[in-house]
Description:
The structure holds two protein chains of two kinds.
Chain A: H1 2-23, H2 29-54, E1 59-63, E2 72-76, H3 78-101, H4 114-127, H5 131-149, H6 156-184, H7 192-197, H8 202-220, H9 229-235, H10 238-263, H11 271-291, H12 296-323, H13 327-362, H14 373-376, H15 378-391, H16 398-411, H17 419-451, H18 458-461, H19 468-486, H20 488-503, H21 530-551, E3 556-559, H22 577-592, E4 596-600, E5 611-615, H23 619-640, H24 647-667
Antiparallel strand pairs in A: 1-2, 4-5
Helix pairs in contact in A: 1-2, 1-4, 2-3, 3-4, 3-10, 3-13, 3-19, 4-5, 4-10, 5-6, 5-10, 6-8, 6-9, 8-10, 9-10, 9-12, 10-12, 10-13, 11-12, 11-17, 12-13, 12-16, 12-17, 13-15, 13-16, 13-19, 13-20, 15-17, 15-19, 16-19, 19-20
Chain B: H1 2-33, H2 43-53, E1 56-59, H3 64-83, H4 99-119, H5 123-154, H6 159-167, H7 175-191, H8 210-213, H9 219-244, H10 256-282, H11 292-312
Helix pairs in contact in B: 1-3, 1-9, 1-10, 2-9, 3-4, 3-9, 4-5, 5-6, 5-7, 5-11, 7-9, 7-11, 9-10
Amino acid sequence: MILALLLACVGLLLATSALAVGIARVKAATPVVYTLCLLASLASCGAAIAELLRGSAPASVTLPLGVPWLGAHFRFDALSAYFLAVVSLGAGAASLFGLGYGRHEAVPARVLPFYPAFLAGMSLVVMADDAFTFLLSWEFMSLTSWALVMAHHHDRENVRAGYVYLVMASFGTLALLLTFGLLAGPGGGYAFAEIRNAHPPAGLAALALILALVGAGSKAGLVPLHVWLPLAHPAAPSHVSALMSGVMTKVAVYGFVRIVFDLLGPPAWWWSLVVLALGGITAVMGVLYALMQHDLKRLLAYHTVENIGIIFIGLGLALAFEAHGMEFAAALAMTAGLLHVLNHSVFKSLLFFGAGAVLTATGERDMEHLGGLIHRMPQTAFVFLVGCAAISALPPLNGFVSEWLTFQAILLSPQLPSWGLKLLVPAVGALLALSAALAAACFVKAFGVTFLGRPRTEAATRAAETDRFSRAAMFFLAALCLIVGVLPGLFMDALAPVVHAFVGASMPVQAGVDWLSIVPIAQSRSSYNGLLVFLFMVISGTLAASAIHRLASDRLRRGPAWDCGYPDPSPVTQYSAASFAQPIRRVFGTIVFRAREHGEMPLPGDMRPARLTVELHDLIWETLYAPVARAVGFAADRLNRLQFLTIRQFLSLVFASLVLLLLVLAIWP
Amino acid sequence: MIVDLAVQGAQMLLVLALAPLLTALVRKTKARLLRRRGPSLLQPYRDLVRLMRKEVVLAQTSSWLFRVIPYLVFAAIWVAASLVPTFRTGLLFSWSADLIAIIALLGSARFFLALAGMDVGTSFGGIGSSREVMIASLAEPAMIMVVFTLALIAGSTQLSTMAGALLNSAVGLRVSLGLALFALMMVALAENARIPVDNPATHLELTMVHEAMVLEYSGRHLALIDLAASLKLLLYVSLIACVFTPWGIGRPDAGPAALALGLVSYLGKLAAGGWLLALFETSIAKMRVFRVPEFLGAGLMLGLLAMLLLFVSRSL
């Protein structure tokens, strides 16, 4: 029943996509398509949340589609329900935003048909219950999002982004294909139910884990497989960027959880080592990359990489605890990771919407050309500020809750018996703390340079507040940031069935705790109450304000900025994004990016301006990808000669390869 | 319940009342160590009153956020300071935010203050903010490592439970505690903009960090920010006192006599803390800005080492 409803929603999305192909040239197409998407997303979001709260048994259905002897299996359990809720929540918000934002789209025919199809693809992935359907939906999701990345294909950068994305997506799917091939075995049991029951031997499971990490990790953006993400996510229209960053990466996390926690069987102790190390490196590298950016959307995309790292730290801890039979600790760690999935999808969508609003208002993504937008776009500035505070893990907003839970899980880990983990987990804890602090630095920069200060260009001076649909979507998400932040217990309780299905335990029920606090283990150990912290801040802020307005002078005068007596009217004298990041670049970048500064100072009398150039190296690209790309290019150049042979040479080539193949067959035992 | 509420209220007012006094004590001691007479202990209170009475001069380019931030910063730091046990553990609301949340509240305050530095669009504000976040990006993880160390020893991240556990003689002297104390003191110096990281007394100098950030503030806004800075100093001294020298602090079931003892011992610890800080500040020179990362990196490594020791053996 529930599955029929959800599949009907997917069907509606696909029908919308078909409709969009027909009517894309009509002016009314934009509102029609986005309204239909909004309705379908709302319906499936409501159904998924209801199902998650009701906690009924998994429903499954087999449709006579796809491979004849297999059919298309769909199953809807607690994990699917949770991720579908996250996907459709993000999709709903993006569709609402799109109602306003889509009007500014230059070529709607390149966006409208693919947008609903992309939503449908993501929903199908989380419901698929056999390898074939899963991979097909996964690839459908990748290709439709690729088409959306290529929406503005006249920009050379976007073409490159699309190319890198396509290569990496195929690579990831290939890894997943091999994972399922290994798991299904020679018998070809591709249904997840069969894979779940056939426990693979240890070596095979290990190989499958690595392949799943490569496959799902490349889509999620784990370092060093993240290279496509900061290129592709910003290239798409902003609401699609929000979906790709906030939602599609979560579908990848779903793929990882489904394969590793569900299909692979009980984990070996060393699996968590790999996942934790990758997660820690990803978290810190993501935020360091983000700090070096001055393109607002690219900065946000790199931040997605960081948050994926945080999620994988939570999941890695859960694996470690599960492997050592500490179910309650595993439940805590997994709840932390999964809660961060929701949190990140909410604030990252919000931030991308904000960047989209800025892009519409000014036509600029480069922060160095913005500034002072808080005066002209006060509402967008406010919600963007909420998003920045939430992603920087500041209480009482939602980002802090999931990081706090992850920290609590780390504090349980000295009880782990294995030495590898004993040494790795503290280091990962330090990396997590470092990434949280750097994230705050990064968002001071993002908000400060974009919205505060004085406008740096004419475009920023002329910006105007964005339309009401976009604002509605952003205010909705900002409210959600606060709600999850002050009432985290409700959301943790909703996660209980999801976690219980995989680690065999769930966290204590939070609904009954006094004052709506959250208590992961015991009151004497740790507790946090976002609601009270929020109320205290409101009360003490109000107390201070009222006391001051009663007792102190309320005179106020506007004057020129003080700036130590030498205010400069030119906006160039402000701190820019690059200069703001300079101290951090000097501290961390000299090692991580081999950052060098070259100053060029003309001699006295010379009228040329002095110049400071910064040299940054993306070492991951240069050491890992560039050699591969060069090798492929080299091989392609060499093989290209085969295209220009004479007919005799072609015939001898065919003959030689035939002989070679026969020889191989003859020698094969 | 009523008593608990009264104690919590008393603590909120106490920290607010004592914060300028601690700042004054540090200034006075520093002056005396330099053979100067120094300002009276009441001077910070007078300064606050004077600033409150003055008009606010706002830069033309400043936004609404600039006017809201002093209240936000003050609220966040005041809430954090009222949740750190001073003269009695087991405060009514101490469970609503554990030590990690208190650190994060201070992080919120810093986040907004750094934004205020960017708001007017001057180069001084920008330099202050950008250096502040650089310092914080190392100080905050170091602080979290200290918290982890203490939490692993005490088995809790609640400050009240921590103080109780460390009062217990079974904890004893530990290598990890010593390392954590060093790391915490380094972080406290950096977070409060003290020498050798920043100089609270300088103005109009390129090396300043905190003062550059709040350069555009005046009048009541500046008063709030100064009060918040004093509160933060008090918070860190109370934190060190509560965790590393918990002797004399009142237990949750303490009677009036024990509370009085707790109060007296707290005042004594504050005075000692202030005096030590002044002594340290007079005996050391300020560092160059880019030496600060090395200083704080050492703090981070000490914290990490302390935590690693506890992972290796629970008794170190």
